[in-house]
Amino acid sequence: MQKYTQQQPMWQRLAFAGAVAAALAFTTSAVQAGECPAGSRVADGKGQPPGPSMPVGVTDVVRATTDLAQEPAMIADRQFRLRQLEMKPGGVVPWHSHDNRPAMIYIVAGEVVEYASNCAVPIVHKAGDVAPEKKGTSHWWKNAGSAPAVLISVDLFPVGMRMDDHMM
Predict the structure, then answer these.
(1) For residue 114, what are the β-bridge partners?
(2) Is position 110 within any domain?
(3) Which of 8, 51, 54, 73 is close enough to 12 for a disulfide, judged by CB 3.0 to 4.6 Å?
(4) Domain count of the chain?
(5) Mind listing the pLDDT tens digit for each residue in 9-63?
(6) Looking at the domain assignment, is residue 3 inside a domain?
(7) Which residue has the higher pLDDT, 137 or 83?
(8) What's the rounded Cα separation, in Å, for the pair 98 and 41?
(9) Comparing C-alpha atoms, which of 101, 103, 139 is closest to residue 122?
(10) What pLDDT band is residue 4 in, cutting at 50, 70 and 90?
(11) Per-residue confidence at 77, pLDDT binned at 50, 70, 90?
C-alpha cells in the first residue's frame, strides 16, 4: 500500500480519504450522519419525487478504474471506479438510479442535499459524511450552500455501459 505524504497530488489524497471512509461505512450498521433518518425511510418511489434531468454546475472526473474480472474477486463486466465530483453553489447532480450500480459517496468539502426516492425527507450531507447508494435508490443532489462541494464517488460500474448525464 502506498504511504500517504503531503507531496501526493490532491486527487490522490482525496481518493485515499474516500476509500477509508467507504471502508468504515461498510463496517457499521447504525444509521450514520448523512443517511435517511430511520423514521423517514419509505418504500422506493414513496419518498422524494424525481428532480432535474440534467446536471448543472458539476464537474465529474474519473480518477481511476480497475477491471474486476482481472482481480481476485473475478467479477465479470464490472469495474471498480473512483470519481471526483465538484459542485458549484446551486449545482445539481441530476435524478438517477443505483439499481445496477452500487456506490459510496464521501463528502470531502461543503454541504449538499439529497432528494431520495426512498426517504420522506431531504437528506443533508456535510463534509465527512458517507452516503451509501444501492439497489432501491433513485435520487438527485443539490448544493444549496454558498461554497463549492467536493465529493468522492466509488462505484461498481458496468463495463460497456455508456456514461451519460443521468448516471452521475
Answers:
(1) 123, 141
(2) yes
(3) 8
(4) 1
(5) 655 555 555 555 555 444 443 446 678 998 999 999 999 999 999 999 999 999 9
(6) no
(7) 83
(8) 17
(9) 139
(10) very low
(11) very high
Instruction: Give the 3-state secondary structure of the chain.
Output: CCCCCCCCCHHHHHHHHHHHHHHHHHCCCCCCCCCCCHHHECCCCCCCCCCCCCCEEEEEEEEEEEEHHHCCCCCCCEEEEEEEEEEEEEEEEEEEECCCCCEEEEEEECEEEEEECCECCCEEEECCCEEEECCCCEEEEECCCCCCEEEEEEEEEECCCCCCHHHC
Among 126, 128, 120, smallest CA distance to 143 is for 126
CA 84 to chain centre: 9
CATH number, domain of 79, equals: 2.60.120.10
Which range of residues forms the domain containing residue 41?
10-167
Q: Is residue 20 part of a domain?
A: yes
* Distance in angstroms (rounded) separating the CA atoms of residues 137 and 88: 24
C-alpha cell at 135: 439497489
Amino acid at 61: V
Residues recorded for the chain: 168
Residue 25 resides in a domain: yes
Contact 45, 117 (CB under 8 A): yes
The Cα 14–Cα 140 span in angstroms is 23
